[in-house]
Design goal:
seven-stranded parallel β-sheet, Rossmann fold, 40% helix, single chain
């Protein structure tokens, strides 16, 4: 089950964190994985790690918010699986703040990467997927795109919610052509750049499962959605969150 042999997959923002975990899981199931990141060294490191374990991977640098770059990188690749994982605020780190106090300059980056980035990759690969009769579009979203949160991430939530809605429309437009489009809404995830153990413990205490999520929690869900076995699943939002949001 869930054999991805012969499939070509892209994971955006896969040079670290959960994206790297997702790329590894896809490779474990036989897919050739394009490891995208803004930083070549990060993409190379993840691709090398996959190949060391016997997988097939290639680093691929481009900015998902730049449509011309995306089209140049992907248009001729013949992708079967695209995992839209690049997020946060793209090249910047998100700066949480109440919306009433937020500088309007802070609105665009999280919307650009979390919504426009998804639209850009989809536009670059969708026609080819439809022509070949197979495609899996999987967008990594967030609970912030499903429910309101009091943590100062309104533009980020707007971008994530927009991408969920976009996936639903793409799913219905292309369902008869062998292409599925789904989202995975994540809860609180462990971040490689956070080393404050007290903060991590505090965040984990708010999750019913009492821990933060990892790429190993997300990876199997993505593998399933990418597989033949999930061919009748489209337009859905799957919650992977340790029980933080129930619907």
């Amino acid at each position: 089950m869930f054999d991805l042999s012969g499939r070509l997959a892209l994971v955006t923002g896969a040079g670290q964190g959960i994206g790297a975990g997702v790329a590894a899981h896809l490779a474990d199931q036989g897919a050739r994985v394009l490891v995208n990141d803004l930083a070549l060294d990060r993409a190379e490191r993840v691709a090398s790690s996959i190949e060391t374990k016997g997988g097939d991977a290639e680093p691929l640098v481009f900015d998902v918010t730049d449509l011309a770059e995306v089209v140049e990188a992907l248009a001729s690749r013949g992708l079967d699986i695209v995992v839209n994982n690049a997020g946060n605020a793209g090249a910047r780190m998100m700066q949480p703040a109440p919306f009433r106090e937020m500088d309007p300059a802070q609105w665009a980056p999280p919307i650009d990467v979390n919504l426009h980035g998804v639209m850009n990759t989809t536009h670059a690969v969708l026609a080819g997927m439809c022509e070949r009769g197979f495609g899996r579009l999987i967008t990594v979203s967030s609970g912030a795109g499903v429910v309101g949160l009091p943590i100062g991430v309104a533009p980020y939530g707007a971008g994530k919610a927009g991408a969920i809605s976009f996936m639903r429309h793409i799913a219905i437009e292309n369902a008869a052509l062998g292409v599925t489009a789904n989202s995975v809404a994540l809860g609180l995830m462990a971040m490689t750049e956070v080393h404050d153990e007290a903060l991590v413990a505090k965040l984990a205490s708010t999750v019913p499962c009492r821990r933060l999520g990892t790429g190993d929690d997300l990876g199997p869900a993505v593998v399933w959605l990418a597989s033949h076995e999930a061919s009748w699943v489209t337009g859905q939002t799957i919650h992977v969150n340790g029980g933080s949001v129930t619907t």
